[in-house]
Amino acid sequence: MDTDSNTSQTRKNLIGLSREELGAELAVLGEKPFRAKQVWHWIYHRGATDFAEMTTLSKVSREKLAEQFVVERLEVARHQVSEDRTQKWLLRTHGGHLIESVHIPEEDRGALCISSQVGCTLTCTFCHTGTQRLVRNLEPGEIVGQFMLARDVLGEWPTPTDGGRLLSNIVMMGMGEPLYNFENVKKALKIVIDEEGIALSRRRITLSTSGVVPMMARCGEELNVDLAVSLHAVTDEIRDQLVPLNRKYPIEQLLAACRAYPGASNARRITFEYVMLKGVNDSDADARALVALLKGIPAKVNLIPFNAWPGVAYECSSNNRIHAFARIVNAGGLSAPVRRPRGRDILAACGQLKSDTVKKRKSELLREQAEADAAA
Predict the structure, then answer these.
(1) 238: Cβ–Cβ under 8 A, 6 or more apart, which residues?
(2) Cα–Cα distance measured from residue 371 to residue 235, given in angstroms and rounded to the nearest whole number
């Protein structure tokens, strides 16, 4: 969505419209309802970006659509590839703002970490994104567009039907708090889930929240995706410092919302994210308190070695301390895997995302992109 482009200013982008909205736009042009289904299939199943590719439509319809609409991706300002194959995209949105998305590959699959806002309002003190002020919510097309662009790069159009996907999961864990942009996130994820388009199972989508308690039930009822909660502490005193939102929705309220989360079960456990900070939240007593706090909740705990960023005051717990903590949590009956950091060398790891190039000129971004391409 390059707003410098004349086409973007004069023709509406169809990416991000719901089925109903797409049908209404086409109806204005005199197209029959079945045309919307055909266009939807081309955009979200086959990944088409040019109406001329949509060969099941008549030539007249294709020309008519091309006069009024575009199917545009987000603009890539910079693309980086980590030494561990993690990829990070700096993307320019409608209005010229910058966001980041990260693809984390595994041997036979991969997850895309998607942003929901430009910046963030939560100011979590260990998180790099929290140092960037909130600019605005992302629109549905800018959210689903991150997934579509990653599919372009990975060559995954048309939608694979055999389950063999390099992009198999979505984690709403990028820049921003998804539950503070719930309507747009919901609209985007419903496009992703739609069986006649991208067709990604809702079981392969995880939404992460820092604890926007009033919105958690709606998330479960209206999206029914897996939930991850950024917990990071076992007392309100410490969590108030790490996650300032805790002052509004303290741990007791947060865990009550988790116990009531629709669809949570032993088969669909809530993931509690817990960043390991040296001397802050990593003691044996903290581990035992964590087990006690999560009693009765179908839960697993992701222990995240802290990923440092320039100027941060925290340090990562030692490897021995992290694993000692994990042993106590495991002995308490909870799964507590230690997350393997990915993409640290390009600041793509958990808590490191920040579009710090907001003030850079386009010429600088182009030069950096050329250097990154040469290195890759």
Answers:
(1) 280, 281
(2) 46
**Which pLDDT belongs to residue 126?**
87
Instruction: Name residue, tokens 């076992």.
Output: 234
- Name the token pair of 264: 């949570």
Residue 32 sits in the same domain as residue 91: no
Could you list the beta-strand ranges (E) of the chain.
12-13, 69-70, 75-81, 87-92, 98-105, 110-113, 117-118, 136-137, 169-172, 205-209, 226-230, 270-276, 299-305
Same domain, 267 and 203: yes
- pLDDT tens across 230-276, in order? 999 999 999 999 999 999 999 999 999 999 999 999 889 999 999 99
User: Which residues are known to be catalytic?
Assistant: 100, 350
DSSP conformation class of 95: T
Distance CA 353, CA 129 (A): 5
Same domain assignment for residues 195 and 237: yes
Secondary element (H or E) of residue 58 = none
Phi, psi for residue 266 in degrees, rounded to 5? -60, -30
* Two structure tokens written together for 227: 């939930």
Residues 6+ apart with CB under 8 A from 147: 112, 114, 167, 170, 192, 198
Structural domain range at position 62: 6-70
Residue 7 is predicted with a pLDDT of: 45
CA angle, 186 then 136 then 246, to 5° = 75
Are 32 and 57 spatial neighbours (Cβ–Cβ below 8 Å)? no
How many folded domains does the chain comprise?
2
Same domain, 100 and 145: yes
Residues 182 and 93 in one domain: yes
For residue 122, CA distances in Å to 129, 175, 209, 241 come to: 9, 11, 11, 12
